[in-house]
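Researcher: We plan to redesign the surface later, but first we want a full-length starting point. Tokens attached.
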């Protein structure tokens, strides 16, 4: 299928880049990788990305919600999966039945998971979440021993993992993350002393995976870097890790307007002279932010978006590209010739982070997968 004639706007995901990036992290550290595929794989498409990552050697999938884990199972993915966020009590039985591991941080959750497991004659796989300084989910370090003991003693429960999450691992100053890591190391030491250390201890997100080998433990939870996106300005990726996503569209109309002509809603832009203005079928309903100062690539050049972004369309000023024709390719994120417009560039214009830029690309934008290989379910792989 020729995308340029099939879609008005679409996203291309290079699954080879995802695989390359997973392998880079494995080779770099020798530690198992959890592919963090929550939020539709940061907008890249959860199922194809999870498949590619597992094919490349990732051993876990990480999601935020039980619904995401169930979707992975329904697609035939039988790798270990961790729901890193809250699992509602009513969904615990399903999680247990499908061998989905759950994060817990309260004794009540352990009891609920145990009764769900009892109801179906199985065992719940649980990861204890420790709040070492993120102040989001998790129990305080001094409470870990009591909960670990409960996990070890409760029938129907497998104390599978222990984890924490760093708040500032993507910053140049290591001190705040040193402090979090120290709390976590102390917790692990205490559990080891009491014979309570679970088999899967994990802490590192992408930034810590890159910069902090001491926090690799048994598993690295790699999200943003797996997509080839930089954790932050202060924590950038090595050149071998490549961006997987390109967002494209086509010019739907190119016209020459006389001077003084208002463009788009509110006429906040007015042509100063005779100008070539083109329309692109992408708008805020696709996740293209309704903000001023947007730019896109046409014919290998950065050109400005003029006037307001509307729901389904934008207008661009094309005086720099006199030969532009309807049907020509537009790149919103990615490379075109020598020109680049990265998710990080777009994030700067929008006053946000690259994570939000790709997560915001809406469901109606078709995802086209490059280098997708056949997925074979392994029936004997243990859940
Ligand atoms: C608990 C947890 N672990 C790991 C990650 C992956 O983080 P990153 O995308 O920065 O690698 C996230 C994502 O926010 C997360 O919430």
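Model: Full-length starting sequence:
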């Amino acid at each position: 299928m020729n995308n340029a004639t099939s879609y008005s706007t679409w996203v291309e995901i290079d699954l080879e880049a995802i695989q390359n990036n997973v392998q880079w992290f494995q080779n770099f550290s020798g530690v198992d990788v959890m592919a963090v595929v929550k939020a539709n794989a940061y907008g890249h498409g959860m199922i194809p990305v999870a498949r590619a990552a597992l094919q490349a050697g990732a051993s876990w999938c990480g999601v935020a919600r039980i619904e995401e884990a169930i979707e992975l199972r329904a697609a035939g993915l039988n790798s270990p999966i961790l729901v890193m966020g809250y699992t509602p009590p009513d969904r615990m039985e399903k999680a247990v039945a499908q061998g989905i591991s759950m994060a817990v941080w309260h004794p009540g959750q352990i009891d609920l998971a145990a009764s769900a497991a009892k109801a179906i004659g199985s065992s719940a796989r649980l990861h204890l979440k420790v709040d070492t300084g993120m102040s989001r989910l998790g129990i305080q370090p001094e409470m870990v021993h009591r909960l670990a003991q409960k996990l070890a003693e409760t029938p129907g429960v497998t104390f599978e993992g222990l984890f924490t999450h760093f708040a500032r691992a993507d910053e140049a100053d290591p001190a705040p993350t040193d402090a979090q890591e120290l709390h976590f190391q102390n917790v692990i030491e205490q559990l080891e002393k009491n014979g309570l250390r679970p088999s899967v201890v994990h802490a590192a997100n992408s930034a810590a995976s890159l910069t902090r080998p001491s926090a690799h433990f048994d598993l690295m939870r790699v999200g943003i870097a797996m997509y080839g996106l930089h954790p932050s300005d202060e924590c950038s990726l090595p050149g071998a890790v490549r961006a997987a996503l390109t967002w494209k569209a086509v010019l739907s109309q190119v016209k020459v307007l006389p001077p003084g002509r208002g463009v788009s809603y509110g006429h906040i832009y007015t042509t100063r002279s005779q100008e070539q203005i083109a329309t692109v079928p992408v708008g805020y309903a696709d996740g293209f932010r309704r903000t001023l100062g947007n730019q896109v690539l046409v014919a290998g050049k950065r050109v400005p978006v003029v006037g307001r972004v509307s729901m389904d369309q934008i207008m661009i000023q094309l005086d720099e590209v006199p030969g532009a024709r309807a049907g020509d390719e537009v790149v919103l994120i990615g490379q075109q010739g020598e020109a680049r417009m990265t998710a990080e560039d777009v994030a700067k214009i929008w006053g946000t982070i690259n994570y939000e830029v790709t997560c915001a690309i809406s469901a109606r934008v078709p995802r086209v997968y490059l280098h997708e290989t056949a997925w074979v379910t392994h029936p004997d792989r243990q859940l």
